[in-house]
Amino acid sequence: MNNKTVRANSEIQKKLSEIILYHLKDPRFTDVMSITKVNVSPDFTHCKAFVSVFNADKNRRNQTIKLLNKSAGFIKHMLADSLELRAIPELVFFLDDGYYYAEQVDKILNDLNETKNN
Predict the structure, then answer these.
(1) Which of 38, 41, 45 is nearest to 94 (CA)?
(2) If you write DSSP's letter for every residue of the chain in order, what string do you get?
(3) Which of 40, 94, 108, 117 has the smallest CB count inside 10 Å?
């Protein structure tokens, strides 16, 4: 990955976070979200954005990703207004369940530790 792509990934991740936090007014977005990773294609035509959705069950996490993908056109427009790129890539959002699994492992370890101490 070249420096231009690395910088673009970082800048797009930052701007996507701001857009989701401050500009998405849809009341269906009730969960806390974080853009965990962004991968822009080498030709800058596509962008995969990975999102963690906190404090929600699997169904709500999936629903949030569907809503983000439905809002991708609006988000892309907002991104175009805030970035100085020749072309703004098409956005596709994916669920990043890493946080959820880490939370589950932590709970299991805590339960085992409590059982061991009793």
Answers:
(1) 38
(2) --HHHHHHHHHHHHHHHHHHHHT---TT--SEEEEEEEEE-TTSSEEEEEEEEES--HHHHHHHHHHHHHTHHHHHHHHHHH---SSPPEEEEEE--HHHHHHHHHHHHHHHHHHHH-
(3) 117
Structural domain containing residue 50 = 3-117
Domain count, the chain: 1
pTM as predicted: 0.82
pLDDT above 80: residue 102? no
Which pLDDT band holds residue 101 (cuts at 50, 70, 90)? Answer: confident
Q: What are phi and psi of 27, to 5 degrees?
A: -65, -10
User: What is the pLDDT averaged over residues 30-34?
Assistant: 87
Q: What is the CATH number of the domain that holds 98?
A: 3.30.300.20
